[in-house]
Amino acid sequence: MEKDLKKLFTEKGLKMTIQRVAILEYLMKTKTHPSADMIYEHISKKYPTITLSTVYNTLETLVNKGIIKKIPTFAGISRYDADLEPHVHLVMGDDKNVKIKDIYDKEIIQQIRTEVANKFNLDVDDNNIYLIIEEKRQQ
Fold first, then answer.
1. Which of 50, 70, 92, 111 has the greatest number of CB atoms lying within 10 Å of its CB?
2. Check whether domain 2-134 has CATH 3.30.750.24, yes or no
3. Is 126 exposed, middle or buried (0-12, 13-18, 19+ CB in 10 A)?
4. What residues contact 114, with CB distance under 8 A and at least 6 apart?
5. Residue 132 has pLDDT above 60, yes or no
6. Stretch 75-101: mean pLDDT
């Protein structure tokens, strides 16, 4: 895996730092779509000197270089995903309890792309479709 990461970082013009590798490896191994705070909590156990600021900056760098995806949620707390295979993120819950489900069904993805493209006269990349459904709280 280290060879693959070295190649990836080189192709993207990034220096291969311990922090970048740790964050990317964690994201590649998890399917939970963690937030920056969740990533920091996990990474800081092995690397106690890492700061939350470093995690945020590293995530933004990885997103900007197209290495990971940033998933919007309700309260503006982004989640992150290293799975770059075409799929849709179904974001459910509310600002305190976010659940994200990956949808890989090619037929559903194509239907969403077609509907959105036709309705709004847009080109839609299925790698960046987020369905955000806020659940109503019981009063």
1. 50
2. no
3. middle
4. none
5. yes
6. 87
The Cβ-side half-sphere exposure at 23, using a 13 Å CA radius, reads 30
Please give the average per-residue pLDDT across 128-134, as a whole number: 75
For the chain, which residues make up each domain, given as ranges?
A: 2-134
Tokens 């075409």 correspond to what residue? Answer: 86
Please tell me whether the overall predicted TM-score, pTM, comes out greater than 0.90 for this model.
no
Q: For residue 83, give every residue at least 6 positions away whose Cβ sits within 8 Å of its Cβ, in sequence order, or none.
A: 31, 69, 102
- 38-82 pLDDT, tens digit per residue, is 999 999 999 999 999 999 999 999 999 999 999 988 778 899 999
Q: What is the spatial distance between Cα 39 and Cα 33, in angstroms, rounded to a whole number?
A: 10
Measure CA 8 to chain center. Answer: 17
| Model confidence at 127: pLDDT above 80 | no
Rounded Cα–Cα distance for residues 129 and 123 (Å):
12
CB neighbour burial string for 35-65, b if at least 16 within 10 angstroms, e if fewer: bbebbbebbbeeeeebeeebbeebbebbeee
CB 116, CB 96: distance < 8 Å: no
Q: What are phi and psi of 124, to 5 degrees?
A: -115, 125
